[in-house]
Specification:
Helix content is about 30%, strand content about 25%. With about 500 residues, the chain is α+β, with helices and mostly antiparallel strands. It folds into 4 domains: about 80 residues, 2-Layer Sandwich (Nucleotidyltransferase, domain 5), CATH 3.30.420.60; about 170 residues, Nucleic acid-binding proteins (OB fold (Dihydrolipoamide Acetyltransferase, E2P)), CATH 2.40.50.140; about 110 residues, Aminopeptidase (3-Layer(aba) Sandwich); about 70 residues, Ribonuclease E, catalytic domain (Hypothetical Protein Ychn, Chain: A), CATH 3.40.1260. The strands form 5 sheets. Strands 4, 5, 6, 8, 9 and 14 form a 6-stranded antiparallel beta sheet that branches. A 6-stranded mixed beta sheet has the order 17-18-19-20-22-21, with helices on one face. Pfam families: RNase_E_G (PF10150), RNase_E_G_Thio (PF20833).
Length: about 500
């Protein structure tokens, strides 16, 4: 089985596809217009010190001076249990920095409107499993890793990586990860930090020392320790960046990087473009004839399995079992492909045999084993539903590529033409009681107007008799089905 990354680069957007055995498994999209500077490090120069605000303005080479508060000069780490944490007290800003001083800072908040970026001197460098803390001698563990045994295992492994350069925070994604992967992450972060220190010494003030990596480089970083046979990129400039980056930080990937200069668009390989379009649909067809219905809501994602046209060859129970087994493979792939995170409720077709339930759960666990995001399966509930969670690492592909429907406003349904017609009739009565008018004009969408003048014309006539006034209907082709106006004349 072969695994490869396809990287498609245009002036406005970068897209990455992970293809395993010829099948699309993951998609990543980044648009240049949405990229900020959070995470970037600069060698700044203090331009003003404001004791009254306990803050300083720092020139980092941007249009507006950035803001550094006294409390942000003191190292602080939230939501992490760090043993023997040092206790710092923020002092007077005038004692911490002085005007004209060069200082190394990191952006924690993008510039917004008239406000400059927000800075900190508490530098951190993230990778897939770890966060590097320069100058620290501690190992912290995310509080979301609840198992005390696992926390101690991770601390023991990462304790060996701490040296004069700094310490580490172990991220939630590291739960269950082996020592080799953690060591590769630690080595990568130290190489990056050494490069930052070299640039600090050789660069003038107001220079960028480190930029949060673009998608193409982040992908290379995050796939450290993952087996890949080939990485193909269709941009010569990006390819050269990747070669330079991998040679310096991820040498194991240098040999498998390729510049793709083919006539076919790179995402037409392995049918990636069409697969992305299919990933935006609710329905996912299974080879057997069954299908999934996937609904993503704000609270959770629900997945319903149906046998569809699959009738099986033996009996109903066997047909249901085979459909559910096939669905586990598709569900695992769709969760990765669509990047669905948070709570996921799966409604498998009801199975009477407990052994069948056990085998379906085992099949789902095996299918999810390849997922780089952490998953947790709770098993079948009393209602026959499987509850699981998947760590939310980034926006879903639907949220990146799609927006709210202007007609239904996210409901997923629109009122029927009949419903809107009756709303129009009620609105005429309401307006007639509230205001004095000689007659009314109704502006409505084509379908609603046609029904009011056709099937519901008798209802409109009865209403005219009831209120004693004439009502005219005017078609407004630009109106959506639910949109209408009742105008007094």
């Amino acid at each position: 089985m072969s695994a490869e990354l396809l990287i498609n680069v245009t002036p406005t957007e970068t897209r990455v596809a992970l293809v395993d055995s010829g099948i699309l498994q993951e998609t990543h999209v980044e648009r240049d217009a949405r990229r900020g500077i959070v995470g970037n490090m600069y060698k700044g120069r203090v331009s003003r010190v404001l004791p009254g605000m306990q803050a300083a303005f720092v020139d980092i080479g941007l249009e507006k001076a950035a803001f550094l508060h006294a409390s942000d000069i003191v190292p602080h780490t939230e939501c992490v249990d760090i043993t023997e944490q040092e206790h710092f007290q923020a002092g007077n800003i005038a004692e911490l920095v002085r005007q004209g001083q060069d200082i190394m800072v990191q952006v924690v908040k993008d510039p917004l409107g008239t406000k400059g970026a927000r800075l900190t001197t508490d530098i951190t460098l993230p990778s897939r499993y770890l966060v590097f803390m320069p100058g620290s001698s501690h190992v912290g563990v995310s509080q979301r890793i609840e198992s005390e045994e696992e926390r101690e295992r991770l601390k023991e492994i990462c304790g060996d990586f701490v040296d004069e350069l700094g310490g580490f925070i172990i991220r939630t994604a590291a739960e269950g990860v082996g020592a080799d992967e953690l060591e590769q992450d630690a080595a990568f972060l130290k190489r990056v930090w050494r490069k930052v220190l070299q640039r600090k010494e050789s660069s003038p003030s107001k220079s960028k020392l480190y930029a949060e990596l673009n998608l193409a480089l982040r992908i290379i970083r995050d796939f450290v320790g993952t087996h890949l046979d080939r990485i193909r990129v269709d941009s010569r400039e990006t390819y050269e960046q990747l070669v330079s980056f991998s040679a310096e930080f991820v040498p194991e990937f240098t040999e498998i990087l390729e510049y793709y200069a083919g006539d076919r668009p790179i995402f037409d390989l392995f049918d990636v473009e069409n697969e992305i379009q299919r990933a935006l649909k609710r329905r996912v067809d299974l080879k057997s004839g069954g299908y999934l219905i996937i609904d993503q809501t704000e609270a959770m994602t629900t997945i319903d399995i149906n046998t569809g046209a699959f009738v099986g060859h033996r009996n109903l129970e066997e047909t249901i079992f085979n459909t559910n087994i096939e669905a586990t493979q598709s569900i695992a792939r769709q969760l990765r492909l669509r990047n669905l995170g948070g709570i996921v409720i799966i409604d498998f077709i009801d199975m009477a045999d407990s052994e069948h339930q056990r085998r379906v759960l085992h099949s789902l666990e095996l299918a999810l084993a390849k997922d780089r995001a952490k998953t947790n399966i709770s098993g079948f509930s009393q209602l026959g539903l499987v509850e699981m969670t998947r760590k939310r690492t980034r926006e879903s592909i639907e949220h990146i590529l799609c927006g709210e429907c202007p007609t239904c406003r996210g409901r997923g349904t629109v009122k029927t033409v009949e419903t809107v017609c009756y709303e129009v009739l009620r609105e005429i009565i309401r307006v007639n009681r509230a205001y004095d008018a000689d007659n009314f004009i109704v502006y409505a969408s084509t379908k609603v107007a046609e029904m009011l003048m056709g099937e519901e014309s008798h209802s409109l006539a009865e209403l005219e008799v009831f209120i004693g006034k004439q009502v005219r209907v005017q078609t407004e082709p630009m109106y959506s089905q639910e949109q209408f106006d009742v105008v007094l004349m």
